[in-house]
Fold these 4 entries.
Entry 1:
Amino acid sequence: MSAKRFLGITLAIVLTSGLGAAHAELSVGASATGVGATPVDPIFTFDEFGIGNVDGVPMFSVVAPDPSSSLAAVLIYTLPFDVGVGDVGVWEGTDHSLPFSDGIRFTNANGDLAGAVGNLLIFYSDNADGTDAPADSGLPSNFGTGATGGPVEELPDGTFLFVAGDNQYHGISDAVEVVPEPSTLAIAGLSGLSMIVVYRRRRATA
């Protein structure tokens, strides 16, 4: 074998090995390099009801069978580009002795959970208190068996944040509806009543 051919084969092996290592080491949820154009520092926002966006641009979502587990119906978002696959657990609060209440999974149509890329984000939410949102499927039995990122904590307002490279994932789980306090309602009612009284007095004196 000539030295030139030997060097060519060696270089090809080195390049192939390097690409394989880079592919395997891609962080969960991080953008895959060299796969189309990706926005700068994208911010993903998504909730339990299938409403999500990337920097304000709506994301497609659907309730369908889980390609990565035996769950028959899960909430799946389609990301605009590929990211590293794997699971991210979400604790409800600061007590890390409790099991995860929610989780997000990055996968693909083959259901890969490690050593691959995909553009599917599955949002699993706790259904112990009942099922009132599309994401309330509970965690699959194989959650955490592949690549993992995080975990992260759910804040008191029902939101959580997972950062992977330049990507930010803002999840909305048990968001609390803001209800005005009784004092605020009373003040608003008195203000409205005062306006009615003034209006009637002006009409009476006209």
Note: The two ends are 110 Å apart (CA to CA).
Entry 2:
Amino acid sequence: MPTWKIESSAKVPSDQKIKEKVLKGWFDFKEAPDRIKDDKETVLTVVGKRGSLLKHASSRLKNDLDVVRKAMNQDVESFQYADPSIKNNKSLVLSAFRGHIPFQLIPEAMRNDKDVILAAIKSSSSNLAFVPEEYRNNRELVLKALEKDGKAIYVIPEGFRNEKAFLMASFLYDNFLSFTCVPNHLVKDKEIVLVAVSVRFALNLQYVGDEFQDDEEVVLESVKHNGLSLQYASKRLQGDPIIVEEAMKENPFAFKFASVKLQGNEEFIKRTIPTSHNVSCHYLQFVSKDLLKKKEFVLSIITRYPFIFQYVSEKLQDDEEVVLEALEWQATREEWLENKSSLLEYASDRILNNREFLLDNYEVTKFGDTFIQDGQISLELNLLVWHEDDFDENDDTV
């Protein structure tokens, strides 16, 4: 409860003090005296910070266009707290739909106005469910709703939902729309299927049935928009190099769903490795175990993608030549040096305890000193680094 309601009359703060406390948020506006709630300057400031506080303004100011607009600019749904008489102001209602105000909040008198209905549908396709029936059956308006949000297909009249044109529009304008909304008589329509599988985030290939999951054109269209949809392709097409490569262009991790044969295809893997080091190649963890044991293959990859070192066989993580190839590339990458990360972390225990190897190659092993298990070796390695730094500094002063 505000202080002014419990203090003696001799200590009741002035209106100015009350305003200051309200504006600073020290007291809840809804507990302020009525004369403060009827002060336009104060209320404008208050609703400008939190539009819903219009609910506690005086009746006079709830009917003030300036105050109501100010509140709506901060929170469009504060429109519901405006005086009923001002809610019939068409420009105010139209401005309300610049937000996402539910159609049910506008007064009955405005619900048959075509401009208002268009604004409502443009604001949110879900409003289509609440507009008068004559407008819900208007093809032009329904298409506008679908262009705004394909999920409007769930609220439009059933007759439209069964029409191919409306379904096509739905899939074209919604990146999440599920193929499950397609009526039975259209689920085998290839044109519908093609546009449905192009919906990026719905992974609709999983719903289209075996026939289309084994259709090259359908699967290719699907993986172009979401490479991970490869997981729902037929086994035959998961082994198709063209389709898998296209899927990997969209998302390299699609390689996880390639056939076992492709995951072990040395030529395919080398060809599809991105040339840019900025592209994640962690998908190479799905390379067949047999290839990850093959030293010749690993060495051919590691200079382009040294991170494969963390996935190679334990035998190769114990191979000094392989370890050096990974570390030498990494030593040239500033982002790894700044993060103080090192692929030495994945080397075998023998390597991490091999004093001769670590010290002889300190220029590349020094970045992984935190992973060296022997404290004495780690100290010697750091001494070499400090000596090198001192030498460089002295050389610069000559």
Note: The longest helix spans residues 375-397.
Entry 3:
Amino acid sequence: MGSHAAPLVARLRRARSRGEWEALRACAGHRNRGPPTALYEESSTIDRSKDGRGHTRGSLNQPSRVNSYKASPRLISLILTAILCVLPTFGAGQDAGRAKADSFGASVREFARRTYVHGPPYAQTRRFGRAALPTLEAMLSDSADQQSWPTVCSMISHLGYADGYPLLHQFIWARFKGTVRGPQLSALRVAQQGIGFIAAESPDALRYLLNGTDPNYWRHLPWSESGESQESVGLEFARLSTSALPFSQNPLARATLVRLRDTSTIQPLRSQAERGIAEYDTIAVHGLSWYMAHVEAVLSGKGGGR
């Protein structure tokens, strides 16, 4: 024991012998006599017997080198008091959290249900962040919101999170059977093209788009377009897959666009691939946010030069 600690221990021993603990407890409002109760009381002893080599070892019936403790009444009282003080605040915090989540979900739904001539604004959609995905997923599952499905699919794609890929893939391949038309068909087209934004974060989404540039890939769709052959639907969705590739900004996507431009025997795919290469290079130079703002400005008639 260090030279500084020894005098302190001696003073504590003298204080106990002179009854100073009683005075201290009286000042604290305790009626019991004796030293203050520790928060934790040691409740086990360890047999420090010697083994055959003279080394200290613990008893086989007691935990060696580890002291077990039991909570004193004082500690229990402190814990209960703390719990009683915290519970009302905790409940209020939960209610506030639920109210905030409900308000956020309502904002997402209100934004998705608006009418847009050229789709929802890219920058405004991005501000909702990943937290909007559960609300958008619920809207895709609710037939009452089908008029908003094209906007919902566009929002999921513009958010650009890999979490959004399964939502759009399932919507395209598992949501419908039989003939689709109207907002259902519009939403399916938006979903397919929009996966390009997600492909920048999701290798699965990129592979899906690369496969989708082949019209034969679409022969097994579980739905059909009213008045159109499956061959025609396959060609259209191969074109949409091609048009989605520039937004991924992946070198493999650009290489695929070059291959389609140079080797495809299908004129619509060659033309789309050539446009896609130009889009890819523009986004690479200026960034996706700039490109989307430029496209929105052109579509709205406000111009938007480089």
Note: Residues 23-49, 56-66 have pLDDT under 50 and may be disordered.
Entry 4:
Amino acid sequence: MRRGLRVALTPSGTVAVTEEKLRRLRDAGLARLAVSLDGSTAAVHDAFRGVRGSYAWALRIIDRARALDLPLQVNTTITRRNLHDFVAMGDFLERFGIVLCSIFFLIPTGPVQGKRASSHIPWSWATSPR
């Protein structure tokens, strides 16, 4: 950070992300905190992540970052499993004052190709104007 490099961090959405740790990172020069959030509700997000309670953990991290005035980015992966929530997700995110929303489309490759094909959105759909 002393050399002009801006540093951002995307922590795992767990209880290990405490306000004190975020404060120390901010004071050390952290430029932005990114949080993965894949649904506007616990039902959508937790089902997507496969971990009950992960939505609440993500929201706690967002609240802590906002309390510390850390610029906030939200990363969202879109698949057929949460596409129905996309508009609601945009409305939901407005309240957080995020500086960047990064959208990812799940494109299975390698060993998982074919195993989760039913959940991804075809690239042709994702890139065609609607």
Note: The chain has one domain: 8-127.
